[in-house]
Amino acid sequence: xxxxxxxxxxxxxxxxxxxxxxxxxxxxxxxxxxxxxxxxxxxxxxxxxxxxxxxxxxxxxxxxxxxxxxxxxxxxxxxxxxxxxxxxxxxxxxxxxxxxxxxxxxxxxxxxxxxxxxxxxxxxxxxxxxxxxxxxxxxxxxxxxxxxxxxxxxxxxxxxxxxxxxxxxxxxxxxxxxxxxxxxxxxxxxxxxxxxxxxxxxxxxxxxxxxxxxxxxxxxxxxxxxxxxxxxxxxxxxxxxxxxxxxxxxxxxxxxxxxxxxxxxxxxxxxxxxxxxxxxxxxxxxxxxxxxxxxxxxxxxxxxxxxxxxxxxxxxxxxxxxxxxxxxxxxxxxxxxxxxxxxxxxxxxxxxxxxxxxxxxxxxxxxxxxxxxxxxxxxxxxxxxxxxxxxxxxxxxxxxxxxxxxxxxxxxx
Length: 413
Fold this sequence. Notes:
Blueprint: H1 2-10, E1 16-26, E2 29-40, H2 44-47, H3 53-57, H4 89-99, H5 104-116, E3 120-123, E4 126-129, H6 131-143, H7 150-164, H8 170-191, E5 200-205, E6 212-218, E7 221-226, E8 235-236, E9 256-261, E10 264-269, E11 278-280, E12 289-294, E13 301-307, E14 310-315, E15 327-332, E16 341-346, E17 352-356, E18 365-366, E19 369-371, E20 383-387, E21 391-395, E22 404-408
Antiparallel strand pairs: 1-2, 3-4, 5-6, 6-7, 7-8, 9-10, 10-11, 12-13, 13-14, 15-16, 16-17, 17-18, 19-20, 20-21, 21-22
């Protein structure tokens, strides 16, 4: 039905509307009604019953001058002008396309870069600028307004296309660009303010030495620091005005503050370092979970945290204790003379591999999962399991042995 209607509608004429404004007089008061009058159905003849409510609300009847209207309902509403919606990934890419900025191959890099450099954060799927991002934009626009103009960027993309087609010499274009850019760069070096050296005094008092707290800029944005630095190294996070209601630390009852770290912003207890409670900003279900198990190195309770590559269990006494519980698969290390266990590890990009718990004393490593089975052909003390979307392959790690078993994803042969 959907395909049929779509096909037939594509062969029909366009609908015709007349944008109309009526003045309706009542007891000396004039009411205005604006909307569209449908003059010709066209393809809407098919879709008429499927028009959305908001589309129907824009349609008004075809009235005549002097016609008397009956009042069916009187409803008073107060409305306020709403600011434009924040960008989502899709709307940002659509805007880049409309303004001729970037190419499809660079859109993903643009979206990831503004987040990795903490220029924006994503809240409910929408980008919200950070103080760092706003500061960077202000400084760059003051010194390089021409370069950051939309038209200039679009023009640059056109010139790159001409260079690719051989219609323009790239060395000449580069020379012209750098002549102007180098002059702007020299002016910026002299006149652009050094925000890392500037300080802004606040009314807050340092709880350690009694000095005034000042606002400084660091790697992860603004923070409060004592004016008596380096004699006093007390620092505090700046409270987020948009954070809404204040959250309380479930461990010690102090207030939670928003901090910025290597992997973005997060909630942390204001009582740090006495209390090291943390949790992500979006999604309280992922907050740090305290376990009943104790750390084998210092005796503190273990906690379940969220890291760059997912959940892991570590000591609650971090950073004094760096213990991280390793995920074991109940397989002994197959190398002779080693009493370690095979544990799950993750590489720099999050890929899982298997290694010995005695690393670096033992350098056993495998990308496929070792299993506790001897090879029936060559007697190897273990076999390897490799899973794909469709099959599970069990094979011998010995290069001179061709033993293997193929089963489905549930392990059945």
